[in-house]
Amino acid sequence: MDTQRLILFFVFVFSTFMLVEGWQRDQKQHSPTVQAGAGGAKADGKTAGGIPVPAAPTSQPAVTAAPAGAPGAVPTAVVAAGGEIIRIETDVLSAQISTKGGDIRRLEFKQHRGTLDKTKNFVLFQSNADNTYIAQSGLIGPEGLPNHHTVYSTSSREFTLKEGEKLLEVRLTAAESATGATVEQVYKFARGSYVIDLTYEITNGSDKALQPYGYFQLVRDRKPPEGDSAMLPTYTGPAVYTKGEKFQKVAFDDIDKAKTPYSKSLQDEGWVAIIQHYFLSAFLPKEKTQREFYTSKLDSGLYAAGVKLVGATIAPGQKGTISAPLYAGPQDTKTLETLAPGLDLVVDFGILTVIAVPLFMVLKWIQGLVGNWGISIILLTVLIKALFYPLQAASYKAMAKMKVIAPKMQQLKERYGDDRQRMQKAMMELYQKEKVNPMAGCLPIVVQMPVFIALYWTILAAVELRQAPFYGWITDLSAIDPWYVLPVLMGASMIIQTRLNPEPPDPVQAKVMKIMPIAFSVFFFFFPAGLVLYWLVNNILSIAQQWQINGAIERANQRPGSAKT
Length: 565
What we know:
Strand content: 15-25%
Helix content: 25-40%
Radius of gyration: 30 Å
Number of domains: 2
Number of helices: 12
CATH class of the largest domain: Mainly Beta
CATH architecture of the largest domain: Distorted Sandwich
Shape: elongated
Distance between the termini: 18 Å
Largest sheet: 10 strands, antiparallel
Mean pLDDT: 82
C-alpha cells in the first residue's frame, strides 16, 4: 500500500540521517592524534611564520601560540603548565589561574552538575593528562612585554566574592619590561555572571610612544566532551563570527588542512569561540576595536582559536588598556543575545532552525507557566496535534476506509494471483468506485516529519533541558530513559496503531509493518527521554483520534441504506 510505503520511506530517511551523523562523529573521535611538532611547528623547528620554536618539555601537555601575522606575531615558544595556582570563588564559578601567563587552567560551574557524575560540578576548563582546555592571553609589541610565558606576582593565592559584594578583582603584576613599561593583568568576576572581564593595564614609563597589541586565545584538544554520544552527534570545535562571513564553524579537520572560512583581515567587530554540547567559551572584544582572528594546530594534539587586538598608542608617562571579556558558560540563548551580535547562533537547532526556534519559544513559554519541562513537552504535543488535526483527520478517514475495503482488496489478490499489472488496475478501479484516495494519508506524515526533526534538535540543543527532571525515574529529559520504560511504551503504542490500520495486501510488506514498531522502539532507546515522551504522547493522541474515526466510519457503513464501503 502506498501509505505504508511512504511511512517506511520516512523511517528509512530519518534513520539514515541519524546513522550518518553518528558515523561522522565516530570518525572524528578516532582521527589520528596530532604528533608533537606537526602543524604549529614544522620539522625544522619553525612555525609557518619562520619563528624558531624551542623544544617542548615532555612532562606536561605543551601549548604553542598562534601563527605569525598582522597586527603582531604571537610568541611561538612552547609553554608548559607551571607557576603557582590562584583560586577564585564566586557564587557561580570556581576558577584556577596560573601565575605563569595568567592562564585560566580550571573553571567549574557551581549551578551545573557533571555529565557523568552529577554529584560534582561541571568542569569546562581543565589541564591534566587526559584533557586540555584553557584560556590564555598576552601582549605583542616591543620586546619584554608580558605574554603567556611570563610569571606574574599577586597579592594573594585565594580570592572569594563575599556576601554583599558585586565584583571581585584579581590583579596580576608583571616585572617592568626592558622598555620601561609596567603591565598588570586584571580579571574581574561579577556576581551571577559567566562573563570574566580580562584587561591589560599598561603604563608607559619610557620616553617613547608605545604601540602594544594583545592576543587572547582558547586552547583545546579535539577529544569530545565527557558523556558525548555517537548516536546523538553534536559539534565540538572552534567558531568565528565576523562582519562579512557572519557565523562560521571551523572544524578541527579544517584547521588540520589550514582552511579558514572566516576573513583574516583587520575588522572592528566579531568574536571567537570554542563550542561543545550545551556550553561554550568565547572572547568578545569590544566594538570598534581593530582585530584579527586566527586558528591553528599546535604541538601535542592541541588547537588554538584566538583573536589579536590593536591597542591604542600610549604616550610616554601615560596609561593604556587592552581588554577582551571572556564568556565561559552555558548556551543560554537569552543571555547570549545580550552579549554580542550572533553569539546566540552557537545554539545549534539543526537544519530546521526556522521551525525549531519557534517550537522552543513556545516550549519555554509553557514551562514558565507549569514549571516542569516534561509537562511542557506534553502540552506542546497537544498543541501540535490540535494544529494538525484537520490534516490528520483526513488521513485517518482515508485509512479507515481502506480498512473497510480491505476484504475486497484481498479478493482481488486471490483472483489475480501473481499478475501484478491486472491487480493494480483492478485496485485503482476499486479506489474510484469506493471514492477512496490511498494517498490521502501521506500529507500529515510529510508535514509532521520536519516538526519531529526540529523538536529533536530543540531537545538536544537547549541547555535549559539539560538534566531537567520530569517525574519518577526520569531525572534528565535530555538523556536516555535509564529504565527504557518510555521506549517500550512507545513501541506498544506503535503496535496498537499498526493494528488500527488496514493490513497491506503484500505479505512481505505486512511482515515489515509488524516488525517496524519493535525495531523503531529499539532505535528510540538511544533518544533523549524528552523526545520519546513527545512521540509517545503523540501516538496516544493519534490512537484516540483514529479509534474514534474508525468507529464512526464502521457505524456509518452498518446503517441500513448506507453505501457499502
